[in-house]
Amino acid sequence: MNTNILQKATKNPLYLFLLKRIKHSITIKIFLKKILWNFSYFQSNGPTYTILKRLVQEKGSNVFFINIGANDGLSGDFLFEFIYKNKWPGILVEPVEFVFERLKQVYQDIPGIIFENSAISDRNDKQNFYYLKRNNVLPAGYDQIGSFNRDHLLNHSNMFPGLEEYIVEKEVNCVSIEGLLDKYCQKVVDIIHIDAEGYDYQILKKIPFSKIKPSVIVFESIHLTTDEITNSKTLLTKNGYKIVQDGPNLLAHCYQMEL
Q1: Confidence class of residue 30 from pLDDT cuts 50, 70 and 90?
Q2: At 230, which CATH number?
Q3: Are residues 1 and 114 in the same domain?
Q4: The dihedral of CA 28, 92, 95, 243: what is its sign?
Q5: Where are the alpha helices (DSSP H) in the chain?
Q6: Residue 44: pLDDT above 80?
Q7: In what order do the strands lie in the sheet with 242-246?
Q8: CA 20, CA 14: separation in Å to the nearest integer?
Q9: Same structural domain for residues 95 and 117?
Q10: What pLDDT sits at residue 20?
Q11: Distance of CA 212 to CAs 89, 150, 184, 206, 251, Å?
């Protein structure tokens, strides 16, 4: 296969648009991603990817992850390749039901995957959650901005014009990280990934570091306040982590290596 042609094709806006708009062809999306794995051009070489490769070298398939705000497991998820290639077991947490159903389709053939249709909060109960209902009108990505805060959705109006008429308020099941660990009797966690649309620090500060010490923690920082970012770094440094900015995320790791 001519890699130059493939590279040009996958940079084409039409190709990217069609890929994102395939709502029901999960199998096709997975197939395309697996093809791209074979071309070094498409492989990330950022800090997170480097650390995860190190983790694979050390532990192979014996890596347990928790992915909070997993969405459909495909859209911009750096863990997807590692989970599929190494058959990592873990917990996928996603509160929006129609997105959760896609998530189950993506990982249905991976043994050891636990699906949790909940939101992560500071307590085990039910809370109101806001998201955009399933539709074919708004641009791709509209299903990735769910939040406990309705204003967070409204702040994306420039990306998704007219989103107000699609906002759904729904009471969803919530569980704390500690409650999640207790529910599945999980005592060892290697990776925690948090993508919670501005709620990331609230989740991060509830990680029971006295019980678990993940080698890798990645969380989205672009929606956090300056104080929350500072507090996040202080908390992680206090618990022995090195911290690196990686695009929209902060990467915290326990490895003695420069990135």
Answers
A1: confident
A2: 3.40.50.150
A3: no
A4: negative
A5: 3-11, 13-21, 26-37, 47-59, 79-86, 97-107, 150-154, 177-183, 200-204, 226-238
A6: no
A7: 113-116, 90-93, 65-68, 191-194, 216-220, 249-253, 242-246
A8: 10
A9: yes
A10: 56
A11: 16, 32, 14, 12, 17
Number of domains in the chain: 2
Rg (CA), the chain: 18
Per-residue confidence at 75, pLDDT binned at 50, 70, 90? confident
Question: Tokens standing for 174?
Answer: 């919530």
Q: What is the pTM of this model?
A: 0.86
Q: In the prediction, which pLDDT does 29 show?
A: 73
- pLDDT (0 to 100) of residue 35: 67
Q: Tens of pLDDT along 153-199?
A: 999 999 999 999 999 999 999 999 999 999 999 999 999 999 999 99
Residue 191 belongs to domain spanning: 44-121+177-253
Q: Do residue 108 and residue 6 come from a single domain?
A: no
Crossing angle of helices 97-107 and 26-37, in 10° steps, is: 50
SS3 content of the chain, % helix, strand, coil (to 5): 40, 20, 40
Tally of CA atoms within 13 A in the half-sphere of 117 that contains its CB? 11
Q: Are residues 49 and 87 in the same domain?
A: yes
Of 118, 119, 92, 95, whose CA–CA distance to 105 is shortest? 92
- Is 28:237 a contact under the CB 8 Å cutoff? no
Is residue 70 a part of any domain in this protein?
A: yes
Q: How confident is the model at residue 36 (pLDDT cuts 50, 70, 90)?
A: low
**Helices and strands (DSSP H and E) totals, the chain:** 10, 10
Per-residue pLDDT averaged across 27-54, rounded?
74
Query: What's the chain's average pLDDT?
Result: 89
Q: Within 13 Å and on the Cβ side, how many CA atoms surround 174?
A: 16
Cβ proximity of 26 and 102 under 8 Å: yes
